[in-house]
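Reviewers asked in the last cycle whether our approach scales beyond single polypeptides. To address this, we selected a multi-component target totalling 562 residues and predicted its structure end to end. The input consisted of the following lines:
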Amino acid sequence: MSPGLVNIAYLIAASLFIFGLKGLTHPRTAVRGNRLGALGMLLAIVITLLDQSIVGYGIILAGIVVGGGIGAVLAVRIKMTDMPQLVALFNGFGGFASVLVAGAALLEVAVLKGTLGSIAINAQFSISTFASGLIGAITFWGSLVAFGKLQGLTNDGSVRYPGDQIVKVVLVIAILIFGYMMVIYPDSSIPYWLMVIVASVLGILFVIPIGGADMPVVVALLNSFSGLAAAAAGFILVNSVLIVAGTLVGASGIILTIVMCKAMNRSLVNVLFGTFTVTEGGPPADEVYGGKVKSTSPEEVAMLLEGAKRVCIVPGYGMAVAQAQHAVRELFDLLEGHGTTVEFGVHPVAGRMPGHMNVLLAEADIPYERLKDMDEINPSFKQVDVTIVIGANDVVNPVARTDPDSPIAGMPILDVDYSKIVVIIKRSLSPGFAGIPNPLFAADNTLMLFGDGKKMVEGIVKSIKEELG
Amino acid sequence: MDSFAMVFTIFVLAAFIGFEVIAKVPPTLHTPLMSGSNAISGIILIGAILSAGAQYTWLTAGLGFIAIVLATINVVGGFMVTNRMLEMFKRKD
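The resulting structure, written as structure tokens, was:
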């Protein structure tokens, strides 16, 4: 096949990726969009297999069969609640593939003494190899740490040690030195692999200090990195489809990262390097809660719900942990059948990755029209009779609005406290990620339903059925 | 136009398109967007195929093979799991 035709085919593949992503702007067109993306990928792969430089197909076929099998099994068997881990893992694999491709290109150039097909060794080659290896290695190791935290294999909290920023600065300097050596000795692989090793350490140290509730930002950022690493590999191989597809993903991840940061009213720098320490100045938990917390039972909540015309359910990470989404669906059906309007208020950073709650509720067959984002639901809380908060804390803490000294000051929250009655389903009064008490739990219109999210919702459902039955 | 200016032009234009298109994705679909775009970043697979297939040395072929396995997990797993999620968002009438 002539290079001209190959490039036209790559252009078609790149266009399919763009149409595919465009399809994701609406739930109705999203399935088709995803398939268009997959079609673009298939086209790009088939065209690449026709490249005249390929002499052996056995090894390619073997790799695709092994990788395809593992990918398919993971995709089919993963539980929806574990989706953040899987996305983190996939990001990492893409990143490491970029490290290897850049490393192999460097070796090939050394073997061919100067030319790799049409590719000359020049500054563009060295710098893009450097970028691909650097971003890819950070993505891989950072994603593995994120996976470990999300899967509960390692400490999910924020791990910090004295001088951590200095260590990172030293690593960055080492990376730059190896990068400079790559440009000076363009056909040696040694500086490249040394750089990859240092970048790997940096990737680990970069994610270790980031705690559970900040994970949506990290997962989105690593998503962006996996794309940028592929785009950098496109600069090495002067391959248009690699550049376009990688850049699209890079842009997508950066947009999500910005959305997540805005939803926490923090800058990206603050999330990545800031010290999100528990402030000493705020009122202690005893003072906030002392004698004012009212505890309730599933039976009482069932009675409240029977009298309600409008109900809002606010899910948080606790709903995912308790696997309560199907019980919530049952409650939804029951109340809707009873003539009550039920909506869901979803905070952008609820859960451990962007859109986490929406996926769980969709899994439980909640119609997506009922899932409202923060800006949409907030003006309507005054008309809501009962709001049920399941396993959320910081995202409904009114302190964000009232106390300018609080660590979450200015963070946009769901204004659940404006509804007539708030029911909070939670195991205990323990603080959320921000480490501060939540005065909402002690408010006059708040009732605490202490217990496991799934069991409590099932209890409410049972009581309503008995009353109506 | 020299080759760097050309590839850099492609890069910048793709970034603009990416920002334009993806800014319109609603929050409900943010997880499928991540896993779907993640599958697209598996495009590194074609770089891996070129490395493994050309077989200049056993080492480049070996690196290429591992890269193919990882990238294919990314591609196949990513598109399949996105499809599975999006099917759940479809209205069940």
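Chain A touches chain B through 113 residues (CB under 8 Å). We regard this as preliminary and will revisit it once experimental data from Aim 1 are available.
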